[in-house]
Amino acid sequence: MLECDDVSRTFGGLKAVDRVSFTVGEGEIFGLIGPNGAGKTTLFNIITGLLLPTAGRVRFRGNDLNGLGPDDVAARGVARTFQNIRLFREMSALENVIVGQHLRTRASLLDAMVASRAYRVEEARVRVRARELLDLVGLGGRAGELGRHLPYGDQRRLEIARALAMEPRLLLLDEPAAGMNPAETQALMVLISRLRHEMGLTILLIEHDMKLVMGVCDRIAVLNFGKKIADGAPQEVRHDPAVVEAYLGSRTGEARTAPRTAGGEPVLDVEAVSAGYGPVEVLHRVSIRVREGQIVTLVGANGAGKTTLLRTVSGLVKPRAGQIRLRGAAIAGARPDRIVAAGVAHVPEGRQVLARMTVLENLRAGAYQRRDRAVERDLEAMLERFPVLGERRAQVAGTLSGGEQQMLAIARGLMSQPRLLMLDEPSLGLAPIVVERIFEIIQELNARGVPILLVEQNAHLALEVAHWGYVLETGRIVKDGPADRLRGDEAVRRAYLG
Amino acid sequence: MTAVLSFYNAYSTLILFSGVAALLALSIYVTLMAGQLSLGNAALATIGGYTAAILTRDHHAPLGLALASGALLATVVAVIIGFPSLRLRGVYLAIATLAFGEVVRVAALNLKITGGALGLVGIPALAGFWHVYGVLAVVAFFFYRLERSRVGRAFAAIREDETAAQAIGIRVTYYKVLAFAIAGFVSGLAGGLSVHFTYVISPAQASFAEAVNILTYAVFGGTATFLGPVVGGIALTVLPEALRFLKEYRLLLNGAILVLVTIYLPQGILTLPLGRWRRARM
User: Fold this and answer.
1) Is the CB of residue B91 less than 8 Å from the CB of residue B99?
2) Which of A279, A285, A474, B74 has a beta carbon 3.0–4.6 Å from B184's, enabling a disulfide?
3) Where are the domains of chain A?
4) Neighbours of A341 (CB within 10 A)
């Protein structure tokens, strides 16, 4: 049905997808898994014609898809959903599914003007069909609601209904269970199986929820750093050592010794905080504590709520319940700029350097809130501490490599003289040797007295440098303890691989 | 009856201008339906106006033929500018289409056939109430049905999310050019009609100010349905006249009303009465 043959795609110097080959047979449910940034969505974008592959070919039912635009690929029977839901937000659920039948309608503008028989029959048909599809995904009762008013899980189901409206042969689902609660995920698994049996669909899906992947997929391929590292039946794949390493990260061999420190006074206290976006609650009564002198790490799978917790501490997300204290002073719900002024520096996921500004300008921006005269002196000290940045002080930040941008983001955070440094996925998308260097820097900073809250996908590495660890699973802390004891703990493995 | 007639005689130009403004507002509405902010409609109307004027004044063509020719030429030009514009989004498209308007204005200033800076005068008085409002009724009906058709839904899908629209098989390029073509036709018609009751046309009609006026009609009325631009065009044409009793404060209040509408009714003045109606449509 679908053949990917040595497909590659590079962005600048980065190999997002690197010579990936696999075949999906008719009627099969095929899973594509791998850590963040492994190239899964890029592969979807190549198959659906949103991106051209730099090499290799994609064949669908024997025909080449290379060079076809997304609309042509859709016309050949390939439908998809999107990781970051792309509904028509200002349309009702029913309208979304009606628009989805675009390829299955023919009536011309002239037909519509004179309300010809063909037009009237077709309009009636698309409405009936749209209702059937809404019933199928369990949204029959919400046909009139606007896309943007639907709860998150319903939005995902509506996207599936819209894709089904095209009457495709192959359906690509990009993280269909993201943001769903366990009951919804269960219902989704039933739906996916029904689609195969009742509509004869072939399904290719990307998913982080291992229960779903293991439950519905016939076969699985695992990607890491753009390369396929394993494929086969779910049971074989989940115990493959290469897969376990890809998810949990590798150990560095020479085990670092994060000295066991009891830690000093509490710097950050998060007490029973709940938070979320719109209708979704992401964090459920989460409590964590960071003490003076500590590196505390928060590990857990994609979508567990790690980033949301950091965003809640830095005021970008308002907590719905609970209290956050910085050295005893309540900061929950305060404006982000006030929280920065109080001493919290947040180095966000994806670094987010100010791409069009130079290195120096980025660093000065980090000191924006400071009024003291030591800024220039600190700036020089920072450039000495990060010699790469010193060499490139006049370079535009967007042209730095990923590792250099990460260092710049950390240095920028430090320019505010924080009492707490929060790092979100500092290793994301970086080559192993660069990751090593970044983690050395993190330890050096900590040795100089900066308390650090570290969020990391690479659990092994994070637990090697940290003093204390928390395991977050679907918005709840399921375990915590001294970091060295969490290493190799079953709860950690389960949080990632189910 | 005589009261109605004397009212019409006193305000006929204003009433005709209102109808033309409604047409121009609809012409920008169609590109907005497909998510394209195009500001070339004043220039397209000018092309339609010159074409129709030259045909009736110099060649004694009947009004219908002149209007159709002007509208068709504007359509062709709209498609020609539509293709390169597809690469542009948002404010860049707006700037490019404004630049196109400037090209038309300068061309009209310098060409012999358009009468240079003075423009064309002595255009025959051929368009009356029934011409303007008859055309408006037909065009409004067209939009009423367009919104309920496969094409209208494709426009809406592109406006909401181009990537998702492509992924369900909508040929985005085709529909964007189609929206430009309809915009060209409707604005060409509006331009052709107006010269036959103002009797003159000059390059100033392709100016920046005119382009922005047309956008204001649509924004003021609201772009949720075709009724918004119609109401907006008529209201904003009548408003300055209705405020005449305020003398020198007239434009001040006119501006204030615009500001208040954009702040408090960002979806246009039809937001309130139409909220329920729009939901009931599907």
Assistant:
1) no
2) B74
3) 2-248, 266-497
4) 14
Name residue, tokens 């600190």.
A378
A95 to chain B, any CB pair closer than 8 A? The answer is yes
Q: How far apart are CA A233 and CA A217, in angstroms?
A: 8
Burial string for B247-264 (b: 16+ CB within 10 Å, else e) reads eeebeeeeeebeeebeee
Q: What is the ipTM of this complex?
A: 0.85
* pLDDT surpassing 80 at residue A18: yes
Q: Which residues contact A221 (CB under 8 A, 6 or more apart)?
A: A20, A22, A30, A31, A32, A33, A228, A230, A231
Put simply, whether A438 touches B (Cβ < 8 Å) is no
Q: Measure in Å the smallest separation between the Cα of B95 and chain A Cα atoms.
A: 23
Q: Which of A451, A424, A414 is nearest to A266 (CA)?
A: A451
Mapped onto helix, strand or coil, the DSSP state of residue A24 is strand
Cβ neighbours of residue A117 closer than 8 Å, sequence gap 6 or more: none
Domain A2-248 and domain A266-497, same fold? Reply is: yes
A162 chain-B contacts, CB cut-off 8 A: 168
CB-nearest partner of B161 from A86, A98, A144: A86
Higher pLDDT, B88 or A124: A124
How do residues B84-115 score in pLDDT, each as one tens digit?
877 888 888 999 999 999 999 999 999 999 98
Range with the lowest mean pLDDT among A102-106, A251-255, B248-252?
Answer: A251-255
Q: Is there a contact between A71 and B172 if contact means CB atoms under 8 Å apart? A: yes
Overall average pLDDT of the B110-124 stretch: 91
Per-residue b or e along B199-219, where b marks 16 or more CB atoms closer than 10 Å to that residue's CB: ebbbbebbbeebbebbbbbbb
Residue B272 burial class via C-beta count within 10 angstroms: exposed 0-12, middle 13-18, buried 19 and up? exposed
Strands of the sheet with A227-232, listed across from one edge: A78-80, A170-174, A202-206, A29-33, A219-224, A227-232
In B, minimum Cα distance to A104 occurs at: B169
**8 Å CB contact of A166 and B156:** no
Confirm or reject contact between A48 and chain B (CB < 8 A): yes
Say which of A50, A111, A113 has its CB closest to residue B163: A50
When scoring A113, A160, A164 by the number of chain B Cβ atoms within 10 A, the one with the most, hence best to mutate, is: A113
Cβ-based neighbours of B93, under 8 Å, separated by 6 or more? B36, B37, B38, B85
- The Cα of B30 is separated from the nearest Cα of chain A by a number of Å equal to 14
Cβ(A161)–Cβ(A134) under 8 Å?
A: yes
Handedness of CA A228, A230, A233, A237 (dihedral sign): negative
Nearest CA-CA partner of A468 in A343, A293, A310:
A293
Q: Does A240 touch chain B (CB under 8 A)?
A: no
Angle made by CA atoms A179, B163, A171, in degrees to the nearest 5: 60
> B167–A103: do the CB atoms touch at under 8 Å?
no
How close A82 gets to chain B, by Cα (Å)?
8
Q: How many CB pairs under 8 A join A and B?
A: 91
CATH number among 3.30.540.10, 3.40.50.300, 2.160.10.10, 2.60.260.20, domain A266-497: 3.40.50.300
pLDDT surpassing 70 at residue A234: yes
Mean pLDDT (chain A) is 87
Give the Cα separation of A451 and A411 in Å (integer).
Answer: 15
Strand partners, A453: A296, A422
Q: Which of A71, A89, A123 sits opposite B170 (nearest CB)?
A: A71
Half-sphere exposure of A105 (CA within 13 A, CB side): 33
Closest CB from B160, B172, B282 relative to A94: B282
> CA of A135 to nearest chain B CA: how many angstroms apart?
17
Superfamily of domain A2-248: P-loop containing nucleotide triphosphate hydrolases (3.40.50.300)
Provide the strand spans (E) within A103-226.
170-174, 202-206, 219-224
